[in-house]
Amino acid sequence: MASEESFLSIDSYDTALCIIPPKHLWPPVDQLRSVYDPAYKKWPPHINLVYPFVSVHDLPRASELIVSRFQEIGGVAELNVRLDTASGFINKKVTFFIQDRDPSRSLELTNLRSTILDSLQPGHHPDARQMHMTVGQSKELNSPLSKYIMEKKIGLLPPLEWTVDKLYVLVRDKDKTQIDEGISSQMKIWGEINLTSLTLLKTPNPTSFYEDERTNDPADAELGVISGYRPLSRPPYTFSQAEHKWIPQRISLDTEPLESAPGTLAISSYNVQAEFQCPPTRARYPIIIQNLLERSALADVLVLQEVTDDFLSHLCKDKTIRENYPFFSNGPPDQIDIEPLPYHTNVVVLSKWPFSWDLLAFPSSRRSSAIVQFSNIGIQEEGVFLPIILFAVHLTSGLTNNSIEKKQQELLSILKYIPNTHLWNPWILAGDFNITTSVYTIETAVKRKEISSSSEATLSKLEAMFTQAGLVDSWTSACIQYGDSVELDRSQHDAKALGGERGATFDPTVNDLAANAVCSDFHKRPQRYDRILVRGKDFTVVGFNMFGQRMGPLEANVNTDTNSDGSDEQVSYGSDHWGIRCLVKISRDMLAELLDIPVIIPENLDPASSPLSHIGELAACLSTQPEFPSEVDIALRETALNLLKEVILQGDDSSTRGLPAFVIVPVGTYGLGVWTTTSDIDCLCIGPISSKTFFALAVQRLRKAASRGIKILRRVDAHFGTVLELEVGHIKVDLQYCSAVSIAETWPNALTLPPTDPIFKLSPSVLAQLKPMRDLYYLLRTVPDLAAFKLAYLLIKCWAKRRGIYAAKFGYLGGIQIAILLSRVCKLLSQDGRPVNAPTILATFYSHYAIFNWEEDMVFDPFFHKELRYFRTAQEPMAVLGFYGPSLNTTQTATIATVHAISKEFRRANELLSRREMTWTQFLGEDTDSVEFLDAYKMYIKITAQFWGTSFAKGNIFVDWLESRCIPLLVDLSKQVPHVNPRIWPARFVRQDAAEEDTEYEGHYIVGLEMRNAQGQPLTKEETRAGLERVQATLRKFETQVRSDSKYFDPKSCWMGATVVPKPKLGELRLDDRDWAKYTVEAEDADIGDSEFWASVETEEPGESRTRRESPARLPSKPAYEGKFRSASDVLNRLRWDQAMDSSDYIVGYEDRFSGVMERSVDSWKSETTHEEFIPEHRIVYFKRKSDGAIVWDKEQRRDEIFGSGVTSLIRQPRG
What we know:
Helices cover 31% and strands 22% of the residues. By secondary structure, the chain is α+β, with helices and mostly antiparallel strands. Helix 9 (401-421) packs parallel to helix 11 and helix 21 (786-802) packs across helix 23.
């Protein structure tokens, strides 16, 4: 029996005797241990032979006893280990491990352990134990998903096979200065027992197994990732046709440029939404792969997030994917010699080009980022090739204080890692950043105390970190330059849209998978989680698009429902995210390349002061303004617009006739989504027929819809064309028409074409009619945050109206001017990709234009006018340039006086916003600005208009006309009296005691007179007296001109006068608040124009039978042109577009140059000059009705039974 001295206690957890595999076998198992095993870095991958072991002071004696016993038995037979089976046990927690399933090899390990224990405690009978290597542990004992993931993932590990030649004696080191950061202790090598030589090798000091991965640099230690610089050592996988399996790419890790390196690089990113069912359904896999193979998704490099082992194995089997992307960062985990992915959801990179890569782990969040270095793509810098570096990221999800903090730590790790390792390389950051962008979501989370205000500030800091790192957001850059997609028919009125939702890649309002992924109602807002950011000095963004936005059929399997007939008709999106792709050019500084013309740029953001910075308070302030639309106002206008479309189009069957369809699109403030309750709806109709024919049909249809609440108020012949002023359900609508076949044919694709496209080779008059629509669509497409833009716009418009500078007809600002001024600021502030909220936009807007030199500088969009060739004339005191021609300057009515007033108001506004504790409500004031105006000047011009003995509707026509004459008066005053700055208030005043019941009307336009010399000093008394005399002379001339216009001025029923009065003699005035809309009456034929033609159209009712309607008895009783003849074009248009006439019942007879008179149906007649079957209309000789063979229009006889023109009208004149 052994002596007591050889009996050692085995109860110390500070020592262990282990088998440890060779280090080259560690990566697969350590990749999983780093995620799932809390003992990772405390222990190496190991099989415990004896643990607990002997005390530290007994280690020498114990080692000697073990070696002696091995020597006594003649050594240890060759010991082979093959860990190839996953298993687990439960003991307070679930432990998952791998073991050797071969009984004979397992028995050899058991016998070895028995021999060792017998040497330490002779006669000891060890307990039965299965030797294993722990890979992971979990406290979630009852989680089927956790159990499935662990068992499945560990089961995918390649077998670990080696011959054991050493046993390791480990000792626990608790010295914080000697162990890795973040762990309490670490098992280190105390000594090694060599099984071949049967000797003990003791280390001088305990040695860490991970010693080569530690760093002494405190800065690197903060990273929590790979520290310092080291080559990217992992090769990609590629599919070997010869071996018919995936193999690591055998390429040199040295980098050198390709002889024909690409000048551009396309990057795609897609979160494929991992399956969390066990087992996974795989029903969406075909849709995801279909999305990845879309033309709009294919790229040079593809970054995927939320990739599982199962999905990657499925993806690797797709031949087309392999052909497009030969190189994968990870191989298929179901291949026996390839390890599983480290996490359940992973980042995987696919590429057309070879690369090397490494994994940057974030241990605190169980996430990682892949850093990819392309072998042959990059830039040359001073003779040195610098390969492109790509960081593929997937930050922690969620909107909680903890998740926001983790996101910040992860992003800091990446951005600190870059300068330490790849300072000079061009680099790209792509993936799912999970940064909440919806202002509504963030502010609601703060209000509900789901996140703190400091976390809200952290979200802003995350965005600022990108800018500080020199990164440019590719979506923002592309949106500003080239425009984003816009759904013109989608409602633009969303009270919860406060900003940060444009360009969303996660949209629960559209994508049901996204909607199902969130719980709280305020989370169900669009978020721009997915991004591709590039270093601005290395790349120019030249394109951006999204993909994966179409549904596809789910793959039938046991976990999806089928219909009763056995068919599976379920459809779904591929993921809860949209995919994104950008195209970048490897080039010099983007901004220098874009802005190659002089432009005044806001130097810095001007963050709004604390009381002004809350977007919710800005929105609340606007909602209390009387002009801000309510839900009822929104519904009324949507109803009015839909009714107008229904009445005008009447189920337009143009497509069945092979003709371009009509298009009706709202323009102006309504189209832009910035309208107020006082705004009209401006509509533009685009079609292929002439303006005259269109308005003939439109008037006919509108009048027949009178019972539905539609009135035609009047026709206005503006410089850009005819406008019908309508009232649709008490909503004022201005209807314009543009005859443009090419635009109607290609709608809406025409909107995305560049201005140089041949489709826009149109006459200046047509381009002028299209301009509002084209300008509108450009703004909608290129403003990076439409919601923030709209909030800012509404505030500016409300401010401008209060301050009396919102009225383009008076030379002040109008809707388009505010849109251009504001969009320019929005885009210049956002050009580097940083999100800018509405309060900051507003603060910058006012500070920028407060110091703007209106006399010398022009306001324009440098992203549109990249090669501006506009020459400003001396007659343009202000230049605010629009986008499309033919006329660029939108401030043609501005005068020196109005520009002076606008500039003064900008300076005042900026001064107010710079005050501490200023609020938006205080900024707008109490709507008493007109009262302030009446007290601001010593001298005024008072223009009085009176009418009596006539209706208010007709009287208002006179007053409106007088108003239009005020601008020429102001221009004349500026010329005649240069040192007078006249400022007109853009609204009428009435006496304080004026009442709604008054049968006579007296209104006043008031002009304030600022009398100062060129140096801005007040005039002397003599100068003032002389100036006022010239003003009076100018007013007398003005009165004479007005009173001599007999068309509008009737001295029997109206009067006007203009005089200079001092402030005390203005009288008690107030703004005219009369509702003039109720005095409007429906226009007569004479007010619309061409009454005879309209009458001829109106006599035909579509409800009557065609035979009776077109018989001679039903010809128009009142001819359109007596003795004149309507053209073939007019007849053709009416047959085509009048719903009361069946175009298929008519034939065109025309002269063929070779065959004589030929016939063709009206529906097959081609009017487009570019069509190969085009025949000039001057060759038409007659129109014939099929049903009775009657000639209804004859060119030679000048007979017309369609309109009743020509000789037909003469024949039908009453006799005697």
